[in-house]
Structures are given as structure tokens and as C-alpha cells.
Amino acid sequence: KFGGVTALDGISFSIFKGECHAIVGENGAGKTTLLNILSGAITPDSGDFVFENQKYEKLDPSLGISLGISVIHQELALVDSMSVMENIFLSQLGRNHSLFVRSIKELYRKTMDVLNKLGTDINPETLVENLSTSKKQIVEIAKTLVYKLKLLIMDEPTAPLTQSESEKLFEIVNSLKKQKISIIFVSHRLEEVFKISDRISVLRDGKYIGTKYTKDTTVEEIIKMMVGKQLDLYNRLISNKKYGKKVLEVTNLTNKNYFKNINFFARSGEILSITGLVGAGRSELVKAIFGVLPFESGSIKVFGKLVKIKSPKDAIQIGIGLLPEDRKVFGIISTMTVKENISLTILSKIARLGFISKSKENNIVKNYIELLNIKTVSFNAPVISLSGGNQQKVILARWLATNVKILIVDEPTQGIDVGAKSEIHKILRELSDNGVAVIIISSDLPEVLSISDRIIVMRKGQIVAELNSYEANKENIMSFATMGIK
């Protein structure tokens, strides 16, 4: 309990030796609190643990390590300025310098032994700051193998990874299982949960709902357990609706570092998705359209008129809004309230003689909180206190308040639970039905297929395909994204 709030209420579950056990649930279901208790960061008010037939009333980090329990959080705990081998053996070097004193060769050899168990070719002497995100994650896993690892807890491990990097991680998880190491795997991505897990446990509103063997259940059944109702999250949207005029036309747009000769259009009342592998230039393209990133050549027309967009201010003035991929860095202003984040783009409209009309601001903010079903104790609450899905809705409300005509959303449901994902899909569909041109950048193919009227595929900075919703499927999209051909 935290004050009067019960974060976890009588949670009971088990994990077998050598299994991958997924824990799923919406934001606020209690997953983070559970992981913090298992890592020893938080002491439970009641309940106990039985680990290898020994009962414990609580864990602390030191006891957890001695038992062979390790946690890899979303924020990796590595020292960028140190080498791989220094990071892997950092805790041991801190307590006993004998490893280092004996010889660097000894440290190198021990590091190679650990890395070989993970089947990776990482050089032990490489500085961590020079590694990709996926290789940093492998180093984080290697740190846990220094001890006699028995239970590895992974919190959203694939969130920052590409599909190929995630596949490599899954290989490592399967390798650990063969070594009789158990894994608790927490993820919002149900597709990968079904790919890697042996069993799935569901939490909802701080309560344990149930556990299913992965092979004996379905995505639909797990979603229903998570939210308490059936969602049409991945039902195909095959639309026969009539679209409006072209509101955005991009011609031969080129930034030599990211994309070249980009040509496409977006119509009012249409949801256009731009997909492709990470690094294809999708995010950079929309940043250029929004005035964040310069381009060397090409042109942009809005409502048939040639426009010059040199900054986000220019884009906003002509009716373009952008929800960035990383909402915590570029979307929300974490030091501000929910109200301040929503009204940020309309201050000139609600101010007179330099003073903001609080009544106008309050009325507008209340309206969008109700319209988008933003769950917050108050519009004066810190925006950082909201769940990821509700933070995303706050950014959506900010743009809706400007009467946006072209809304660009980059990875709109990344890192949020299925309930919030369904709500955001519904909001985007309603916006397009009301005449807004919605452009979605997404790596989530089920999402792209379910919500799009039209799909553009990018590869290596170029558009390689344009597909209507009825002719698109995972296979042809991936063929275009990986090889440029069907």
C-alpha cells in the first residue's frame, strides 16, 4: 500500500525452474510494484516468498543477489565511460580488487567466458558508450551471469530494440532456459509474449487475475483478462469511406543524410501509415515536414498552396501537429501540470493583454480531459504522475485544442498497455472521420494493418511501396521493408 492506495492486493503466483514466465497487465495493474518487491527495492506489507523451498518475508537487493535473483530494468544500469569487462565485473572489483590486481588478462578471460555463454561477439575492451542499445542489454544480462543466476527478471526488455535485435534477445532467453535459469518477462507487446513465454500471468488493478499456459490460450483471451472486456484492437479496418481533398503534398523532399526524393500525399478524412524498419528515415521525414529537421530540396504544399516550414511554429500556424516518438523527452513537459501541458499551444488564444484567462483555460482543459477520458486526479496534477497512455492523450489534447488539420503521430502506442492502445486507436479514427488527415509512423505491423486506410513503406530513406488497406499484409510489407521488393 502507498498511503490509501493499494498497489498490490494479495498477489500469488509461481514460476518453474527453466521457464519464461510473462507478467502482463495494463499500466497501473501493479507490474512495476511487483518487480520492485521481487528486486528488494520495496518491502511488502504482507505475504511471503518461497524460493527453492526456503521461506522469506522480504527481500533486499543483497539477499536477492545471494539467492541468484537479478533484475534488468528498462533504464539500463551501465557506466558508459567504462569498458564492457569493467561493467560486467564492477561490483566484484568494488569489493575485491584481486581480480584487477592479478591481471587485466584474467579479467578479459573471465569476461569472454561470460559473453560466450550468451553467444555474442562483443569485445570485452569496448567502451559501453560505443555499443548499440541491444548490445548494452546483452552486457546487462552478462552482469547477472557473474553470480550464480537462477532467476532473471526483465522489465520491457525489447522496448528500445529493433525487430532483429529483439530476435537476438529471444535467442539469449532460450539459451538461459536451457541452462535451467528462470525468466520473468514483463512486456506490453503481446505478440512477443506469445513468442517467448511458456506461461502468462495477468494482473489487473493490483489483483492477480490468472495464469495460462501460452500454448493453450490466445491473444484475445489474454486481452480480455487484462481489461475485463473484449477489445477489437487488431480488427482490420477496411474502409470504403470517401476521402476529402489532398491537404498535404510532398514533392521530391530530400535530406541527404536521411531520405531522398520523397513523394506522397495525405487526404482529409484518411489515416495514412508510414512504416518500415528502424533507420528507414520515417521519423526524420515527418520531423522535416514539421520544421524540426532541415531539407536540402523538394517542396511541401498544404491545401494546395506552397508553404515554407522552417520551424515547428510555422507548422503549427498552418494546422500541422506532431506527436513525437519519445513523448518523455520531446512530448510532455515533465515539470508542468496536465493543464499546462494541454494549453501550451493555445496560450495566445486564451490570453488578453498578456494575461491568461484562467476560466477559458480551465474550460478548454476540462473539455479535453472528458473527451479523451484522461485519467488524472486533477488537471493540476503533475503530468509525470500519469500513466504512459494518459500522457499520450495529454499530447493529443494539446493538438486538438489548436484545431489541427494534419496530425502526425510517431509510434502512437509504443510502451502503453492494450486498453490505452485501443482508446488511442479509437480517437485517431474519430479524428479522421471528422476530416483530419492523420499520418501515423509505426513499427507495429498489427497496428498498421488494423488502423490504416493507406500504407507507405520506406526502406533506406526511400519510399518503396504504397498499399491500400485491403491489399496489405505482414508478408508483403516486410518484403518491401527488408528487400525493397514484394
Explain the overall architecture.
This protein is an alpha/beta fold. The chain is 37% helix and 21% strand. It is built from 20 helices and 20 strands. The protein has helices at residues 31-38, 61-67, 84-88, 90-95, 98-102, 104-117, 133-145, 163-178, 190-196, 219-227, 282-289, 312-317, 327-331, 338-343, 347-350, 358-371, 388-400, 418-433, 445-451, 474-483, and strands at residues 20-24, 49-51, 54-56, 69-72, 151-155, 182-186, 199-204, 207-213, 246-255, 259-267, 271-275, 297-302, 305-307, 320-323, 351-352, 355-356, 406-410, 437-441, 454-459, 462-468. The strands form 5 sheets. Strands 4-5-6-1-7-8 form a 6-stranded mixed beta sheet, with helices on both faces. The protein is globular, with a radius of gyration of 24 Å. The termini are far apart.
Instruction: Give the end-to-end Cα distance, rounded to a whole number of Å.
Output: 54 Å
Note the overall shape. Answer: globular
Average pLDDT level: 83
Q: Could you give the order of strands across the largest sheet?
A: 4-5-6-1-7-8
Beta-strand share of residues: 15-25%
- Tell me about the biggest sheet? 6 strands, mixed
Structure classification:
alpha/beta
Low-confidence stretches: 95-101
- Fraction of residues in H or I helices: 25-40%
Q: How many whole angstroms does the radius of gyration measure?
A: 24 Å
Count of DSSP-assigned helices: 20
